[in-house]
Amino acid sequence: MTEQTMILGAGLAGLSAAYHSGYPVFEMRHRPGGAADSSSEQGFVFDLGIHVLQSREPYFLKLLEVLGVSLVTHRRNGWIYSNGSYSLYPFQVNTSHLPWNLRLQCVLGFLMRERDGQPGNYEEWMVRNFGQGFAENFLIPYARKFWRVAPSEMTYEWTGERVPQPRLVEILKGMFRDQDTNMGTHTTFQYPTAAGAGFGAIAAALASKIEPIAYGHRATFIDPVQRVIHFNGGEIRRTYDHLISTIPLPELFRIIPDAPAPVLRAVHRLAFNSIAIVNLAVDRPQVSDKHWIHFPGGETPVFRMSFPGNFCQGLNPEGTSTLQAEISYDRNDRPDRDDLLRQVRADLVRCGILRGDDRVLFEDVVFQNYGYVIYNHAREEALREIQGYLKRVNISTCGRYGEWKYLWSDQSVLSGKRAAQQILREKSRTPVASENLV
Ligand SMILES: Cc1cc2nc3c(=O)[nH]c(=O)nc-3n(C[C@H](O)[C@H](O)[C@H](O)COP(=O)(O)OP(=O)(O)OC[C@H]3O[C@@H](n4cnc5c(N)ncnc54)[C@H](O)[C@@H]3O)c2cc1C
């Protein structure tokens, strides 16, 4: 058994770590991409939940160019469905479709909002920034639906540009007419154009430059003292000098049973939601020209609906349309597949997106156990405990579920690069790929 540095997981972070170091990658699945992968069945291509790019990271964009990933740019056509009508995103500046009493509640709440002092949690942050009307009618219900925890249990450090913050004049204008603003994320966004590949084209391009990727290798046990890792229940064993792990932290500690009790307790305090992704294809072209729709209300469990065929040509056969609904759930309370399909189809008809006579050509539900990292109040301290221990046993973690951060795909790629380069620096070796780019 030879000792080497190895990477766990061939999602974007693991692929990037390998690309920038040359270290081998071990992946439990039989393909690369992880959460940024796409599937193709009967000519219908679906990503694992809506995936679009709005990267402003010059290095990442240059990397895509070097990898030959071509992109198409779109102007956002994002909507909100609420109170039986559609408004342009973000609704803070597009309330003209709402009943007057709601419009007035929103604007008065905004004017009267308390601005002094620091909010103690995400719920307070919403009320202070937007006022009671917006918060109680839209933001808080949407947050509960999306995160599956009360927003008072969350911090707000992750919000940044993700939650658009309007000015009074924009709110007032929006009470009378739709405004297509540059507010919020993804006002323009990009999507890979490779035929039939979907967002997975990025991971596929990275993977094509990496050798070897050991697919079908599920890490099942780590002895951090002897630095031994088992794959597939001990069928394959390797020693390592350093591990770069991109697998979710709770999964990593499931296979380090001998980690100290305070560390395991800290891992237990990490929270995340899970996402059910309902993929549908129907026999009608362009059922919608929208890119996505948010559903803050209780009329459907769906929090977001998107139309993959509008991101790029060639993701569905001519004369058909694809639709993708996302529903978040608590991992201990996974919805039933058939109930979900029935409900989503009925909701889409009720919201005027599908017609009763649309013929469904394809339907599937994908359950993503790890959806969004929840920034609960315990997170920061738990991560300090966890990372302190991992550093002592020569395990670095990176990526969305390794750093345990709300990272977009470009940030996950950069996270993998940073982790690999840190180890190369410690070993005083030159990065493999990046000298061509930076
Ligand atoms: C619903 C959703 C929507 C998103 N939308 C966007 C978007 O619009 N734009 C955007 O830029 N980003 C988006 N993201 C974020 C983006 O998907 C992530 O930042 C990125 O894919 C994370 O990559 P990663 O490598 O860190 O993690 P992962 O992709 O999770 O990679 C981890 C890998 O480890 C493997 N693994 C797990 N356990 C083991 C084990 N025991 N042994 C071996 N291998 C193992 C997994 O199979 C996986 O391949 C979205 C994410 C989600 C969940």
Describe the structure.
The chain is an alpha/beta fold and 438 residues long. It has 3 domains: 164 residues, 3-Layer(bba) Sandwich (FAD/NAD(P)-binding domain), CATH 3.50.50; 143 residues, Polyamine Oxidase, Chain A, domain 2 (Alpha-Beta Complex), CATH 3.90.660; 84 residues, Orthogonal Bundle (protoporphyrinogen ix oxidase, domain 3), CATH 1.10.3110. Helix content is 30%, strand content 22%. The protein contains 11 helices and 20 strands. The strands form 5 sheets. Strands 1, 2, 9, 10, 11, 12 and 20 form a 7-stranded mixed beta sheet that branches. Helix 1 links the parallel strand 1 and strand 2. Helix 1 runs parallel beside helix 6, helix 1 runs parallel beside helix 11 and helix 8 packs across helix 10. The two termini are 36 Å apart. The chain binds flavin-adenine dinucleotide (FAD). The site of flavin-adenine dinucleotide (FAD) has 35 residues, from helix 1 and helix 11.
Keywords summarizing the entry:
11 helices; 438 residues; FAD/NAD(P)-binding domain; 20 strands; 3 domains; binds flavin-adenine dinucleotide; protoporphyrinogen ix oxidase, domain 3; seven-stranded mixed β-sheet; globular; Polyamine Oxidase, Chain A, domain 2; alpha/beta
